[in-house]
Amino acid sequence: MKRKSLILFTVLAVAISSCSKPVEKDYKDASLSIDERVEALLPKLSLEEKVAQMRIFHANIGTKPDENGNLKLSEKVIEKLKLGIAGIKNPGEHIDAVAAAKLNNELQKYIIENNRWGIPALFVTESYNGVDAEGCTKFGRSITSAASFNPELVRRQWDVVGREARLRGMHMCHSPEADIVRDPRFGRMSEAFGEDTYLTTQMVKNAIIGVQGDYEGLGNGTHIGAVAKHFAGYGQVLGGSNFAAIEISPRTLIDEIYPPFEAAVKEAKTLGIMASHGDINGVASHGNPELLTGVLRDQWGFEGYVVSDSNDIARLFYFMNVAESPEAAAQMGLEAGIDIDLYAEDSYAYLPEMVKNNPDLEKLIDRSVRRVLRTKFILGLFDNPYIDIEDVKKGVRAESSLELAKESDLESIIMLKNENNALPLSKEKSTKVALLGPLLKDDTKAMFELVSGSNIKFIAEKGFNLTNEKGGAPELMERDPKAIAKLVNAAKGADVSILFLGGDKFTSKEAYFSNSTLGDRATIDPVGPQDELVEKIKALGKPVIVVLKHRRTLSINTIAAEADAILDTWDLSEFGDESVAKIIFGELSPSGKSPVTIPRSIGQLPYHYSMKEINYKKEYLFLGKGPLYPFGHGLSYTDFEYSDITISNGEITPDTELEVSVKITNNGSIKAKEVVQMYIKDEIGSVTRPDKELKGFEKIELDAGESKTVIFKITPKMLEFTGITMEKVLEPGDYTVKVGTSSQDYLETTFKLKK
């Protein structure tokens, strides 16, 4: 009897124990929440497998198609993929979209089948002129689209980027740049959205929403995740020299540099953030926990992953000299909050061995791996890792995408000058036009002929190159008198000359870590004999139109003085010259506005419109007053009249809002678009304040003779700044509202803040 009772007790105990044991969740179960799936998978991984989820390598080390288009892996890559991988940069970038999708499907299948837990990889691209890969729609650069002052247009453009990238089998994009760029010596200027905090914030936010498909496109498999970069202050490198130190006052950092990143996190829900190459006031960004954890996560609530820039964790040791050893650099990056090591073999690769001596590091490793796995689950890669090839054929370079590239161009072209209505040119009048200069492309003449009609005859002559077009460290070409003479002779035989001037991709580019690869400049004058060319052709006494192409702001003094009209185009899409022709021949009016201040001289730098008011007290000897062209400047073929500025109340409190309105009338004879801009000036502050700050803009379209009243809301939030105690303050006092067509041409009204 006792034996039976004992057996019964044992059975009951086992049964109770079995019932009380929690059921193990399956990370492959799509019905679970993302966090549940992450927590179900993470404990299964060995330490080495975890660290593999914290590393990205570049496809160029051995991930490519063979002669038949099938996946071919190097031994190095095969070894790396045994444990899985966080991601691979740019697989299939040099083949067309269909071939890339096929290759990436094969690559993903190999990765899933050759690591123990079937963890997919993130395939990562970038976007400078659309998806940075072969066979995608080529848009204008970010600073070009910023000139449109049309955030909705930017959102649609980046929606195409997100769709086309996902169709190639990509999942993340190391773009857009949320940096503020104010030094045109910096070779990467055109990758960002300009000098202004508010404009950049609106553009970055909309770019991320677009590329991520309003976040819903991530899990639906239609879009990719954004990685906003470079956090923070990267555009402020001293001397405009890549990798140089960054000195920014804490107040400027908070009020002017952080806001685009904060909006990327809080409003656009970016999946990723990339840390800055540089330091901030002596603290290397890749080893800065106050920045990458304190500000980014604790203050802003960022939940995505932080990725290093290329090799930058290791550089804490061998370049920044703030770590004692490669291992110390790895620990510094990990503790600061870097989740993924981009490219390096001498950084996070050391972590498994380091944990043996410091087991507490595994908690930080787990923290980072959670973020990486979470991203992969958000993107739906565990459930739907492959691309439908038939969708690729229909979706990449769709007609609607190509038309959008043209639309973006047309809204981004800035007319800086139009003396005596030199533009537009008439299609009806028989005219001989000379297309001349070093920025002329092989298909420029053909693109102009598509637009101009039969009455216009063209001569096309490039004349000379600006550089020898060597990628690493290009050299300027020697002045060629014969080439210049040939261009002048061509202009003699024409009724009007259109000069394509400025700079090309060799005169403004990223300066890589290697000393043999340069991209920054010590001057911002147009290189080569471009000024001479303008002067000699202008001396012929015929109209001269300049089409300015460039990737950095240039001090175009001679061009501004001599040209009858100037179209500033920055770096347009693949249809750029066709779009320029449409503007020149009056198919529509230009409506772009300059996203930067255009200085007379490099000696004026720093020189952005929102500098402190005291910066404008004195001018320089022997130099004209002010900039060549102010921020927000851009002319039209019509005349917009601003009138009747009114404000809803003369006072605002911390709990109320105001509205300011202005009437805009199109007094011309054609329909046109105008960017109405609102600036606010804090007349007296406890710290020195900006001369003015852009706080709103709206792009409108008016028929000939039409009027519209534009209304802007003024909120207390717009008036906040970092005060003398380094806390955000809202100070009572007088404010001036300036609403107009640029940062220097506006109507004014005033109000008081009362507390």
From TrEMBL:
Q: In terms of domain of life, where is this protein from? A: Bacteria
Q: Which InterPro entries match?
A: Cellulose_deg_GH3 (IPR050288), Fn3-like (IPR026891), GH (IPR017853), Glyco_hydro_3_C (IPR002772), Glyco_hydro_3_C_sf (IPR036881), Glyco_hydro_3_N (IPR001764), Glyco_hydro_3_N_sf (IPR036962), Ig-like_fold (IPR013783)
Q: Which GO terms describe its molecular function?
A: hydrolase activity
What does the UniProt keyword field contain? Hydrolase
Domain Fibronectin type III-like positions: 674-743
Stored SUPFAM superfamilies = (Trans)glycosidases, Beta-D-glucan exohydrolase, C-terminal domain
Q: Which family does it belong to?
A: Belongs to the glycosyl hydrolase 3 family.
Report what the protein is called: Glycoside hydrolase family 3 C-terminal domain-containing protein
Organism of this sequence: Winogradskyella litoriviva
